[in-house]
Specification:
about 900 residues; mainly alpha; Rossmann fold; Arc Repressor Mutant, subunit A; 6 domains; 5-stranded parallel sheet; two-stranded antiparallel sheet; ATP-binding; WH-like_DNA-bd_sf; nucleotide-binding
């Protein structure tokens, strides 16, 4: 069936909203680009909308579609898109160009970086769009090969500054919703009754007629079903057949029944020939003719199928008229016939395609085919096609006769799936591998990867249990593996909400490391012990361990060292060594960008965000926003949740309560369940936002829950609980001085036992807030100022001055209140904390002084979006536009567009001015 048949004039019936979206996307194309994902059931009209977009484009159109039988071949769809644009390959950085050529088999390149491929594809499309606007249409996205789909996911999020429109169509049951977060999408709804009647009129039927009217409820609003039944009814009448009532009332898959009515009327030879069209990767006439000849058929066998509208003849070969036909053809084909067809096609093919045909033809285990698939998986991995290599390894494992080979190949499949972002598949395939592994070291490796995957996908507590059990089993067999497994179990325990477990696991890791007395194990144990001690509040010992561990890092920092470095950076931040933490995080982030391997970026970026959030809010916001984007792309719920709660806290402190609540709602829907360690960050963000909005009631409920959750977790480091002073203030504001004093005394105990600057300053602030005399307030203000001098905490210092100024004014010392209130107002304004600045201004006015007009202005850097700030920092650090594009995984044009807006917003004209501005703002060194 030609789906264009259900159009009414120029616009598809019932798709006004979708067409308006396409019009907006296409009309804006000369200035900017965008992506749009069309979701819907089979037959709902996705392909028709792509046809409509192509007809209305007024620009160059590139089209590609996923084909189920081609999904096993790496970068197939990417090749369809980019080979016509090969002349633009020279316009991307050489490393990206080489990676593209390697993955598309245009050059012999060993191990092309998958993210260099993604960035290179974006660069090529951007260059083509710069020459002339470009519309890229992808149909049947659910059948696009994993490597190409990964590139499309990457590109779709980065088109705002390119003259490229990307429209993709996918079935609703694709199962990858999280992978497309951040990409605008629309779900195609069924047609309503009026639209169905309009469609029937287009097919020459009177919808008021009883027989035609019955079609509307049967179609359930699916236009393909409706048109197929309408055609069947029209054909039956043309033949003079009568249709029994039950033929229309039998429940079942309506689309399939409509198509099967045509297939059933075909001669057996024609139906047999259809099997080859369905199974053939690319049913070109020559290949299909040879395959049909091998079984005594010919191309003429398909004539009746073509006349029945089941296949159509293109320039190069036959194709099925609609994707629904492939499973329908195969469902009515005996297994023996299907396996024979695969063998025939394998005999006519070579390379990877032949291997996959043989794999499909194998009725059971076959080591020869499994080994060939494994070789293909190695080649796909070298080309950076990790999604494709993962599937090849998995199929090789299914065909492996030996259990040991199954286990090894499943582990390889899981590893490639994990690093390609398919974390859930990685966890599942590790489960399969464990059922076949009998070798201790192999089992330990599988368990380690399974634990990592379970942790990142959002089940850290489960990951901890699995890793500890595996470590205990390995202790008597392979202490080195046991040490590694205990080490891997530490942070999932903390993320899972039990720091006591984390500390116990780190201690056991250290005991084993001491017996092994080798460098890597001792370094791992030192880092993890220091990290857990920082969490529990044993600050002195933690600081010694993590500084020693930092000193032991040297050279180029291999990937394993970088993973440890992120943990070192976190602990350094928690023990008031923020300069060292910033340097460690910066090194990891810079290496990830330079090497084009962003796997550690989400973790490192949220760690640096946590450090920067004490005072450099613009930088913290930029890091958290980038971490969120990478966490979503990798499917890492834990890092996605961490980034969301970090952004929510920053928004709450600035007084952007609605934005904060929206972030937390998204976090709770997509990430919250299963990650108890983030609960305190979510609750505290909501509580601090409520306090900033002058709403202490909800603040109390949120912050008390956060405080209780921290105690239950065993969290003893107050630097991870900067909301506690807010909790005391909220109790004071609601008249509960007793509870406010209890919280204040907790801060004193933490300040004394940890020696950290913030709890000491917060304790002094709370004592000033609860003081009964002005002299006492001033004494505690002086004490707080001394504590603040130990660490740069401008927001916290402003909060201290505001509280002290308010208390002095309440105690009828307005003259003494003015200076701290003026200083607080200046700092809040400079930080962009609008609600706190307004509160300080109100108190200052009540104290008899108004803020000096123009004395403090919101920072201009606050006008920059997160990505604009990232670009500005890259340029401010001396990178060229091309180098910045490579480092940030965007196109050169995106850098140029953002840089233009940065100059305009900051009121500067040159790169040197930008560098000086950012240095003054403490955003670059």
């Amino acid at each position: 069936m030609d789906e264009s048949a259900w159009q009414d004039g120029e616009e598809p019936i019932g798709r006004g909203r979708e067409c308006d979206l396409l019009h907006g996307l296409l009309d804006s194309l000369p200035d900017r680009g965008a992506a749009l994902l069309l979701r819907g059931d089979p037959g709902i009209g996705k392909s028709t909308l792509l046809d409509y977009a192509a007809g209305r484009a007024g620009a160059r159109v590139l089209r590609a579609r996923g084909i189920e039988s081609e999904a096993v071949l790496p970068y197939t769809v990417l090749a369809d898109l980019l080979l016509p644009l090969r002349k633009y390959f020279a316009e991307v950085p050489i490393a990206q160009c080489r990676a593209l050529e390697g993955c598309l088999a245009l050059a012999d390149v060993a191990d092309p970086n998958p993210y260099a491929v993604c960035a290179g594809a974006l660069g090529v499309l951007a260059a083509a769009g710069e020459a002339e606007p470009l519309v890229v249409l992808i149909d049947d996205l659910h059948w696009v090969d994993p490597s190409s789909r990964r590139v499309l996911q990457f590109v779709a999020r980065r088109l705002s500054t390119e003259r490229v429109a990307l429209v993709m169509a996918v079935r609703t049951e694709g199962g990858e919703d999280g992978m497309w977060d951040g990409v605008p999408h629309v779900v195609l709804a069924p047609l309503d009754g009026n639209e169905c009647r309009q469609l029937l009129r287009r097919r020459g039927l009177d919808p008021a007629e009883a027989a035609a009217a019955r079609l509307i409820p049967l179609s359930m609003g699916n236009p393909l079903v409706l048109v197929e039944y309408a055609d069947a009814l029209a054909q039956a009448r043309a033949r003079g057949d009568g249709l029994a009532e039950q033929e229309w009332e039998i429940p079942g898959p309506l689309v399939e029944r409509a198509w099967w009515g045509r297939m059933r009327a075909l001669a057996p030879g024609t139906r047999d020939a259809l099997v080859y069209v369905a199974l053939c990767r690319s049913p070109k006439y020559a290949v299909l003719e040879r395959a049909l000849d091998a079984v005594g058929l010919s191309l003429s066998s398909l004539t009746a199928a073509e006349e029945a509208g089941l296949v159509r003849a293109g320039h190069e070969g036959y194709e099925l008229r609609h994707p629904i036909l492939r499973p329908l053809v195969l469902a009515h084909c005996p297994v023996a016939q299907r396996l024979r067809a695969y063998r025939v096609l394998a005999d006519l093919s070579s390379g990877e395609l032949r291997t996959w045909y043989l794999a499909s033809a194998a009725p059971g285990p076959d080591e020869t085919v499994a080994a060939a698939l494994a070789d293909g998986a190695v080649q796909a991995r070298r080309r950076g096609a990790l999604g494709t290599s993962a599937r090849a390894w998995h199929r090789a494992a299914e065909l492996s006769p030996k259990a040991s080979d199954k286990a090894v190949r499943l582990l390889n499949a899981a590893q490639d799936a994990f690093y390609s972002g398919a974390t859930a598949d990685a966890a599942q395939w590790c489960e399969e591998a464990l059922r076949h592994s009998a070798e201790p070291a192999l089992t330990a490796g599988i368990e380690l990867l399974r634990g990592q995957a379970r942790s990142w996908v959002g089940d850290p507590a489960g990951a901890h249990r699995l890793l500890v059990a595996a470590a205990a089993a390995a202790e008597g067999v392979d202490p080195a593996w046991a040490c590694a497994l205990y080490g891997a179990a530490v942070m999932p325990a903390a993320m899972g909400g039990n720091i006591g477990w984390a500390a116990d696991t780190a201690a056991r890791c250290g005991e084993l490391a001491d017996t092994l007395a080798t460098g890597p194990e001792l370094q791992l144990a030192r880092v993890l012990r220091g990290n857990t001690q920082a969490l529990t509040g044993q600050v002195g010992e933690s600081r010694r361990l993590v500084l020693d561990a930092r000193a032991a890092l040297h050279g180029n920092w291999a990937l394993e060292e970088r993973q440890l470095a992120v943990l070192i950076g976190q602990a350094l931040s928690w023990v008031d060594e923020e300069d060292a933490a910033r340097e460690v995080f910066g090194t990891v982030i810079d290496r990830a960008r330079r090497d084009g391997v962003p796997a550690l970026l989400p973790f490192a970026l949220v760690g640096r965000c946590e450090t920067e959030s004490w005072g450099r809010w613009a930088a913290a916001r930029a890091d958290a926003a980038e971490a969120l984007r990478w966490g979503q792309e990798f499917g890492h719920n834990a890092m996605t949740g961490y980034a969301l709660t970090s952004l929510a806290r920053l928004e709450g402190l600035r007084g952007e309560r609605a934005a904060c609540e929206e972030r937390i709602a998204y976090y709770e829907e997509h990430c919250g369940e299963g990650i108890p360690g983030l609960e305190i960050f979510a609750e505290s963000a909501l509580g601090s936002a409520a306090l900033a909005s002058g709403d202490p009631g909800p603040c109390l409920s949120h912050l008390e829950r956060a405080f209780a959750a921290a105690a239950e977790m065993g969290l003893g480091n107050p630097n991870l609980m900067p909301f506690v002073a807010d909790l005391a203030e909220a109790h004071s504001r609601t008249g509960n001085r007793k509870r406010a004093m209890e919280i204040t005394l907790w801060l004193r105990e933490r300040a004394q036992s940890t020696g950290l600057a913030w709890p000491a300053a917060a304790y002094a602030r709370c004592r000033a807030m609860l003081a009964e005399s002005a002299d006492t307030v001033q004494q505690w203000l002086a004490e707080a100022e001394r504590a603040h001098s130990r660490r740069a905490m401008p927001y916290e210092l402003a909060r201290t001055r505001l509280v002290c100024g308010e208390t002095l004014r309440r105690l009828r010392r307005p003259a003494a209140a003015r200076d701290p209130l003026q200083a607080a107002h200046r700092t809040f304004t400079a930080l962009g904390a609008a609600t706190w600045a307004a509160r300080a201004a109100s108190e200052l006015a009540a104290a008899g002084r108004r803020p000096v007009p123009g004395a403090a202005q919101p920072p201009r850097v606050d006008l920059l979006t997160a990505q604009e700030l990232q670009v500005a920092r890259a340029i401010g650090e001396g990178l060229s536009n091309v180098e910045a594009a490579t480092a940030l995984f965007v196109s050169r044009k995106t850098v140029e567009a953002h840089l233009t807006r940065v100059y305009r917003k900051l009121g500067i004209r040159s790169r040197s001015e930008l560098a000086r501005y950012l240095a003054r703002a403490d955003l670059v060194d």
